[in-house]
Structure formats: structure tokens, C-alpha cells
Amino acid sequence: MSVTYNFGFMDEHAKKEVRRSILKAISIPGYQVPYSSREMPMGRGFGTGGLQITLSLIGADETLKVIDQGSDDSVNAVNLRQFVELTCPGVNTTTHLNEATLIQSRHRIPEVPLTPNQTLVLQVPYPDPLVVVEPSEDKRKVMHGEADYARLLVKLYEDIVKFDEITISHRYPTRINGHYVIDPSPIPRWDVPKLHNSPALILFGAGREKKIYAVPPHTKAEPLAFDDVPFRVESFNDAQGNRRPCERCGATDSFLDEYINEDGSKRYQCSDSDYCDTVLAETKEAANA
Amino acid sequence: MSNLATAIPTIWQPHTQQHAYRQLMQAFANPGQIEALSEDALLLTLATLLDGATSIADVHGLISALDLARLETANEPAETAHFVLADGAQAPVFTPSLGTLESPEGGATLLLTVTAFNDGASYTLSGPGVDGARNVTLQGLNPAWLDSRESWNAAFPMGVDIVLLAGKQVMALPRTTRIKGA
């Protein structure tokens, strides 16, 4: 017996609810809209929030790119891409950013700026930045409504007292349109400035926590910081102060992953595999010309 | 199954609604941008967004009883409905749901019919989704809607989000959009 799924696996009512939630998320930038996150045929925590957004948006004329920590070929990206291919007949998938109309990503924003016709969907494990300072969701909702982030700023200040620096490496709290502070998902600091005045719509889906939020295009996104301790992104300089290049493609303008070789030495390579491939191809072309 | 699918008018088919939704999403993400839908914007927008989990107030009786039945949605007064459908030429005589400080998504979505987007009173929009400023012209919208909107949206994050419908075209004005008259 063959079983046919509805296009996009989810039923149309479930999609409609996600779609309505997205419109409210866009209208109230940074606000976490609650929705009834459905059971998906994979465990919560494996990107079900992002997947439900993707499946609610996707149409037969779509070209989808799925990224896991910058790579199209690691396990989460491969699984989600295959699931969409299985349940959305006619949909194209790609690894090239410039071909994609819809991009679902886990913990990275691509190096190359998005275009207005693209939509980025980010998978979110912990949507609420206030959870570290306030355990009650009812109280957090009031704090968000009042844009009261004093306790979050105290937390950042404590970091400065202890370490002379805000030590948050990823999930950096970011204020959207001067009101709501979001957890921008576990993207590195490197990617946070890409939220500001983005040409493309960015959607965030938290499946386990049942929340959807958005950063519309051309919207202010400011990482929380202090006047005398400004926000800064990761440094990829070596001990001599020189910018490390990617060992594979030679790029000096990308976010690098650190690998440990068998002999204990370190190796640095682009995290965004599509960007690395593109730079490598361009370098080869230039060498052959 | 394919025979059944072709018997249903396209407006009620999932593929049509998916496509229309993406255009509506683009409209919300880019306030003031005109999106041309494939069918009548009023009915297609309703068919795309509404179902049994929502409620509607059809203030000026713009949808037929048959279409209302097909939407499988609940009728509610304009003061409490999730979606309020009204003729934009007539001034509002109600205060829609504005949501609460904790749950601002409870603010209503107003669907207003207007005559056209290529003529009439001109306005300048700014805010999230607008790169700098965007000029729009609206024909057939009673200015009282924009005055009321201003007071409804005075206490962000509470407020209403507006979708304007003209023939097959739609334009969205989320609560964050600032509107300046000519």
C-alpha cells in the first residue's frame, strides 16, 4: 500500500495557522508569536520550528537551500532537504545561494547578502532572551511588552565586571526596531550585523517552544551593548595580528571554523561551504585566465 | 482525487492559496508595495487566511452567504473579531480588538476595500520593511480610517494591521508603518 502525504506534509489548517502567525510576527517585529507547533516526524530540537515555517511557505515553483552550521552537507541539512524533497513533489533544491528563493538555516546566515526575493528561515532552540533572568513566562511577556530589558543589561554588565568583555559567543541578544529584544538563534556574533537593515525577510521558528518571530527587511537590529563597551564580532587574527585566511579557498572575509589536526595543530576553514566553493572556483578561473 | 481537485474553484485550492500567501507575506514585509494576486483580492485573501480557528466581522456585508459558509469561520462583532472586513470608503464606527501588552498578536487584521492604488490621495510611508520612504496613492479610502488607525496604534505593541484590497491588488499597512499625508 502506498501512502501519499499532503503537499508539504502538514495539513492545510496547520499551514494556515503558521501563515497567520508569520503575518503577526512581521507586523510586530521581534515579538514571539505563539503557535500550536505540530508533531513532525522527527524529534523536537531537530529544526521542527524552521521546518514548519518552510513547509507552510513552500510552493511547487520554489528552490530551497538548507544549511546546517554553514554547510549543505552535514546531517541536519541533508535530512531536512530530503524530507522536503519527499513531501513536496516538484520543489527544486540547491546548494547555491543565488539560485535559492527560500533558505532554511541552522545557526548561520550566509556570507553573501540575501536579495529582496529571498526569505531566510532560521531554526531556533531557545527563543526568549529573558529566560536567563526571569523564569516565569507570564512575567517575561510583560517585560517584553514594556521593553523592560534592565535585568538583561545587568547580566551583560556582570560579564564586563568579571571578564572585561561581554562573553556571549552566539545567541547574542539583539533589539529589533527599538523595542523587542530577540534571541537571534545560535548564530555567531559575526552574523548579527546581517540582521540590521537586511534586504530580505528573516523568520525564526522555535518548534519545541512553539514560537515564531520575524525581522522584516530594512528594520533596525541593534545588538545590546554599552556606549563604552561596543559590540564586536569574532576576531580571526593570529598571534601576529594578521587576519587568518581560509586554508581551502584563501578568503579573508568569512567566518572561519577551527579544526584540530591529528598532530594537535589548528586549521581554519570557511564555515559557509557554498561561499568557500564559490571563492575557490573564482580563484581557479582567475588562475586559468 | 485529481478530478475532485479540478472541480473545486481555483480560489479554494491549496496551491492558489500558497501562492497568494507568499504575495501577502511580501506585502506585509514591504508595506505599501502593491502585490497583484491571481484572483479577486477580497475573496482570495479571506480564503488564504481564514478557517475554523478564526472569526470575522463583515461590517458592510461584502461577502455572500455561500462564500462565508465555505470559509467555515465564525461571525463575530467588529469589536472582537480577528478579521474585520469593511468598505474603506465608509468611516469606521467601531473600535477593533487591539490585543494586549502581553499578547499584541490579538490585535485585529482589518481588510478594507478601496477603489485603486494608482490614483487618489498620496501618502508617504516609513518604518520597518520600508527602505527610507515609499510613496503610495490610495483612492477610495476614507481618511477617517487613517485617523482612527493612528489612535488605535498609539500604544505599540498593541494595534491593528491593515490590508487594503483593490480589485486583484493588495497592499498591507502593518501597525509599525508610519503614514504621512501629502
Architecture blueprint of SSEs:
The complex is a heterodimer of chains A (289) and B (182).
Chain A: H1 12-27, E1 33-34, H2 48-57, E2 63-68, H3 75-87, E3 92-93, E4 102-106, E5 119-123, H4 137-145, H5 150-163, E6 174-176, E7 180-182, E8 201-206, E9 211-215, E10 221-223, E11 256-260, E12 266-270, H6 273-288
Parallel strand pairs in A: 2-3, 2-4, 4-5, 5-8
Antiparallel strand pairs in A: 1-9, 6-7, 6-10, 8-9, 11-12
Chain B: H1 2-7, H2 14-29, E1 35-36, H3 41-49, E2 55-58, H4 65-71, E3 74-75, E4 83-87, E5 109-113, E6 116-126, E7 134-139, H5 143-152, E8 161-166, E9 169-173, E10 178-181
Helix pairs in contact in B: 2-3
Question: What does it look like?
Answer:
- The complex is a heterodimer of chains A (about 290) and B (about 180).
- By secondary structure, chain A is of the alpha/beta class.
- Chain A folds into two domains: about 10-225, Bacterial phosphonate metabolism protein PhnH (Rossmann fold), CATH 3.40.50; about 235-289, no CATH class.
- Chain A has helices at about 10-25, 50-55, 75-85, 135-145, 150-165, 275-289, and strands at about 35, 65-70, 90-95, 100-105, 120-125, 175, 180, 200-205, 210-215, 220-225, 255-260, 265-270.
- In chain A, strands 1-9-8-5-4-2-3 form a seven-stranded mixed beta sheet.
- In chain A, strand 8 and strand 9 form a beta hairpin.
- Chain A starts with 11 loop residues before the first helix and ends with a helix.
- Chain B contains five helices and ten strands; from the N terminus they run ααβαβαβββββαβββ.
- In chain B, the strands form two sheets. In chain B, strands 1-9-8-5-4-2-3 form a seven-stranded mixed beta sheet. In chain B, strands 7-6-10 form a three-stranded antiparallel beta sheet, with no helix packed on it.
- The mean pLDDT of chain B is about 95.
- Chains A and B meet through helix 1, strand 1 and helix 4 of A and helix 2 of B.
